[in-house]
Write a structure and sequence with these properties.
Largest sheet: 6 strands, antiparallel
Radius of gyration: 13 Å
Distance between the termini: 10 Å
Shape: globular
CATH superfamily: RNA polymerase II/Efflux pump adaptor protein, barrel-sandwich hybrid domain
Number of strands: 9
CATH class: Mainly Beta
Strand order of the largest sheet: 1-2-3-9-8-5
Strand content: 35-45%
Mean pLDDT: 96
Length: about 120
């Protein structure tokens, strides 16, 4: 499994990268592997301010539908447009082209409270 050290993680299997106060969020390599072939991503929360751990969308795989939880409080500013036509990008490149949302983070210190790569690895091991 691949868990890049420059990212932070949640117990719900989302990853986060931070650039200033803009976060990019997706699901981890572990999560996409557990879900299997992803066929649809439903995120309708663009422009909404949400609290940490609120549901911001769902991911649908061949056998299941799973909620997506916001890792930190903030406002969703962008949804990855490529996922509408190619949801399988989450399977093939979860940390790159398969990102899900970009958001403005209310408090950048919240990012530091998320799991490190090492802590996330221990969680899923």
């Amino acid at each position: 499994m691949n868990f890049p050290e420059n990212l932070r993680y949640t117990k719900d299997h989302e990853w986060v990268s931070l650039d200033g106060n803009v976060a990019t969020v997706g699901i981890t390599d572990f999560a996409q592997g557990e879900l299997g072939d992803i066929v649809y991503i439903d995120i309708t929360s663009k422009g909404k301010a949400l609290a940490a751990e609120e549901v911001f969308g769902t991911v649908e795989a061949v056998k299941t539908v799973s909620d997506l939880f916001l890792p930190v409080q903030g406002t969703i500013t962008m949804i990855n447009p490529a996922l509408e036509a190619q949801p399988e990008l989450v399977n093939t490149d979860p940390y790159g082209e398969g990102w899900m949302i970009k958001m403005t983070v209310d408090n950048v210190e919240d990012f530091q409270k998320l799991l490190t790569s090492e802590a996330y690895t221990a969680l899923v091991a």
